[in-house]
Amino acid sequence: MKTPWAQRQLIMTPRIQELHFTLIAHRILHMLILLLLARWGYSHPQCLDYKPPFQPQQPLVFCKEYSKFGCCDLQKDEEIRIRFYTIMENFDHSGYVTCSRYIHSILCQECSPYAAHLYDAEDANTPMRILPGLCGNYCADYWHRCRYTMSLLLEDLGVLHQYANITMAIEEDRKRFCDFLELKDKQYCYPNVLTSAELNANLGFVRENPKGCLELCLQEVANGLRNPVAMIHADDGTHRFFVAEQLGYVWVYLPNGSRIDRPFLNLTHAVLTSPWAGDERGFLCIALHPRFTTVRKAYVYYSVSVNKEERIRISEFTLSPHDDNQLDHSSERTILEVTEPASNHNGGQLLFGHDGYLYIFIGDGGRAGDPFGKFGNSQNKSTLLGKALRVDVEDNDDAPPYSIPWDNPFLWEKETRPEIYAYGVRNMWRCSIDRGDPVTGGGRGRMFCGDVGQNKYEEVDIIVKGGNYGWRAKEGFSCYDRKLCQNSSLDDILPIFAYPHKLGKSVTGGYVYRGCEMPNLNGLYIFGDFMSGRLMSLKENVTTGEWKYNEICMGRDQICRFPKLINSFYKYIISFAEDEAGELYFLATGAPSATTRAGFIYKIVDPSRRAPPGKCSIKPLPVKIKGKLIPFRPKAEFVINKKPTTTAAPTTTRKPTTATKMPRKTHIIVKPPMPKRDKTPPSSLPSPTTATSKMRQTPTSATITKAPTTVQKATTPATTTHTGYRTTITTASRVAQTTTPPTRTHGRTFKYSPSTTFQPPASSTPPSAPTKAPQVPQPTEHYPGLTTQQPPYWAQVSTPSSYKRPFIHTTPHKLQEDKMRLGEKLETAGEGNQLLKRPRGRGRGTKRGRGLRAGSVRLVSTDGLPNRGRVEIFVRGQWGTVCDDLFTSKAGTVVCRQLGFKTALAVLKRAAFGEADGSVRILLDDVECEGQERSLLDCKRSRVGKHNCSHAEDVGVICG
């Protein structure tokens, strides 16, 4: 005997069944989202452009509640205000009074600091809500008072035609209404998210974990470096930076991350170093003249061997007259040489102060405890070892290499080197000049240094003229040589901070953050430790002069879930750097050897707050390039890619039905006609059901009969109860008044296309039937530095080569299962009544390739064979060829696996399968694969669109 539920199912009309299953699918989707949220833990502030919130430069006028912190600037606020008044034109006075606060609140949630959570936008693999998520009680109250405003909100968004089939039904049913709008997370739904003390207590401030550790994130900037020891900028408006390797190379990087293939300087023939891990000798620093654009000089600090005697050499180079990105190697002029009695404690810092003088920091000569002489080198002012020096290198072309500034503190002291600016230092490693507070200028000109300790303490000092920093009498705040310590001067300069070796054993000095992008970090001195991999910070109490210590740890996945951000790094922190805009970086490696390409550059990012949009925009001056540019390809896995892949809920195909009238008091909406099917592919990807038919149908089977539409007139409103709405008749023509894709908010463009029967891509051979490609593990590069046992505060670091990109396949139902790459999003066709997510990418695609993802491949064969043909790849919205003389069977196997075959039987070059016509671009060249990549875009290759071949060399593949 059938149950009452089953009996009811039997008598349900097809239309009601469709609505029923659509709502079920919608609920399943929300359940999946909730499960993912539970897995990730708590949410965090994030805007719909996938960036942190900010404080607008000018107070908002309409969404005033988000003037202090949120996701809208004044321009966005004005756009929301215009939308509000456009919607409210449909109301009379009583309706305006009743419903305006609901409309205002719902529209302004785009400005909420939790906007991404309210719109389910934190997960790039799930559909984003069209309207923000409401709390249950608020939704019930909204339904009771102003339920019919939902259609107005959807119409304002330009998507009412997507929901016209269900809007009228759910507006009459409170449960369905709130199932559509409610966000089940009771803490983060609106308006509870505004009143949660736990969420809003420190909103907009740097997040601290329960142990007080500041949680920051990173962005990978460069990789594959051999012990990067220094990174500087020219301060010339180009925003390029110069990176020095211990081996003796200096490279030029442009603001877009690309590197010039020719080195700025190559001193590998002269630099003294070795491949031993931890060797302190080598190329240690570079400084550009503060007026580099006019003086065109650079100064370098490196180790040399002269007659088997180890020395420190400071040299001057002049910029090449023919290339602004290369020094004239023949122009080297030695400024200063200092003999090193041992191979360690070489110092290694050069920098120009705000006074225009060159500062040189030299170590104490090496060995343990500064054993040279009665008091050691550092306390002996007749030697340059263990000192901070200051010299004048201005106007030295026809004069000695340098002169002594007139106000050097020991200029007139007997048996004292006049170059000395400060003394009593052990081995200062990395110093910096404070730019000063961007508003008040406070702190400007202060010189911070990290001084590596002996066996108990590491210290951070502020260098002052004539200061004695105590070594070897003192180490940190404690005595090292007790006899010297008892007789030392009370005027010795104590460090602003010292830490014991349980925290780290080799300090790396950093910078005071004075950049624009991260306001919360202003005034924070950020430094690290080479041995322990700790990132640390100091914050000055201006009133007391004391410095507060906070450790910096990597934010959890949820905190760093922003584009391009990572939350792990290699532990050997070699140096810190500052770019021309004042943003902060650090240089680290996985293996501290001058010959191992394990070095990375990371940018420090605060995910809790950013500067207002447009405030920190820079326009780098152009740089004339001679040679080639090597594009940057990150190796670390972005946090935003760590989340699990989800598949959108399946939808059923609608059948054309005749529109019916649904009178509702005085506001009458007549159901619009079904969108006319045509042969224009939609901008979004097809649903699994439709997508499968897309690959199998022929053009002749695409004819669909348009359903007839009946538009009925409104009934007389006098017989209904007044609701406050103005008496309006919304006809089908009003609902579907345009087929032009309306521009929408949320940092994306919403593209609507009518329901369509899809055509196969313009290829002579359709893709073969999908088969599951074998999952081959990615190789992992081994770095010795990672064999050290990791302390509990240090996040596990992903090896550079372990970044696994998703497998790309052209079969649509497989697309639903794979992760998205290159910033694109998974979309579903407009056939089903489900929440859609607007595409993030800007590419428009061609008519023959719309809906495919970057990296999809196909074989074009004049014989119509599915397993062989010319290789074409879909990149940046167009199909193009692969033209390559390096293409091997391994690369061919990558193509075949994408198409469902096991391997490549043969790879043919010189256009063996025919040349592409002139309208098809050559998109890839110099492709080299390891055989385990899932897409040609994952392989080593030239930049997309850059090649040195012709269509006569188009690659072909035979799969098997």
Give a description of the structure.
There is one protein chain. The chain is an alpha+beta fold and 960 residues long. Among the domains are: 64-195, no CATH class; 212-615 and 626-640, TolB, C-terminal domain (Neuraminidase), CATH 2.120.10; 856-959, Mac-2 Binding Protein (Roll). The protein contains 17 helices and 38 strands. The strands form nine sheets. Strands 1, 21, 22, 23, 24, 25, 26, 27 and 28 form a nine-stranded mixed sheet that branches. Helix 7 (149-157) packs antiparallel against helix 8 (160-172). The longest helix has 27 residues, at 14-40. It is globular, with a radius of gyration of 33 Å. The two termini are 54 Å apart.
| Mean pLDDT across every amino acid position | 78
Low-confidence stretches: 1-17, 19-23, 27-41, 645-848
Query: In whole angstroms, how far apart are the ends?
Result: 54 Å
Q: What's the CATH topology label of the domain at 212-615 and 626-640?
A: Neuraminidase
Tertiary shape = globular
- What is the top-level CATH class of the domain at 212-615 and 626-640? Mainly Beta
Number of strands: 38
CATH architecture title of the domain at 212-615 and 626-640? 6 Propeller
Q: Which structural category do the helix and sheet elements fall into?
A: alpha+beta
Please tell me how large the radius of gyration is: 33 Å
Number of helices in the DSSP assignment: 17
Q: What amount of the residues lies in strands?
A: 15-25%
Under CATH, the homologous superfamily of the domain at 212-615 and 626-640 reads TolB, C-terminal domain
Major beta sheet summary:
9 strands, mixed
Helix content: 10-25%
